[in-house]
Design brief:
Layout: E1 13-17, H1 21-31, E2 37-41, H2 44-50, H3 54-59, E3 60-66, H4 74-84, E4 90-93, E5 109-112, H5 117-135
Parallel strand pairs: 1-2, 1-3, 3-4, 4-5
């Protein structure tokens, strides 16, 4: 397992982890208004493989994932992702009541229960801007 520290390069990619083709297509279009590049992983395993590529890891500005996924759970994925890339923010989407409690002790994790596209886009844009200020 590689662990990447963010270099002094431009991060311009959002990684969307979503197993639903329709939902992923809509979210990808939505997030393309925030960042020029949105890459999609079908599941947590594919996402973790993607971040093992140094070029991809260097460009990563934000990860957007669901709380419920096939294979490993959202909290397991986020914990493993955090071990590999401790500085990249993760936005977890979920509708369950109090799902945020399952992520206690994991840094730089943000949550949204919204289904409103403009709210999701604004939140992603805000997270990317806050992250740029913290690493600049």
């Amino acid at each position: 397992m590689l662990r990447f520290i963010r270099p002094n390069t431009r991060m311009d990619t959002i990684l969307l982890v979503d197993d639903s083709p329709l939902r992923a297509s809509m979210r990808k279009s939505l997030l393309e208004g925030v960042m020029p590049s949105v890459a999609r992983a079908l599941d947590a395993a594919e996402a973790l493989c993607m971040v093992e590529t140094p070029e991809f890891a260097k460009s990563l500005a934000l990860v957007v994932t669901g709380h419920v996924m096939p294979g490993i759970s959202g909290p397991e994925f986020v914990a493993e992702f955090r071990r590999r890339m401790p500085q990249v923010p993760v936005l977890v989407l979920g509708m369950a009541e109090h799902f945020q409690n399952e992520y206690q002790g994991i840094d730089r994790v943000y949550f949204s229960r919204t289904k409103v596209p403009d709210e999701l886009r604004a939140l992603a844009a805000r997270l990317v801007r806050v992250d740029e200020k913290q690493t600049a």
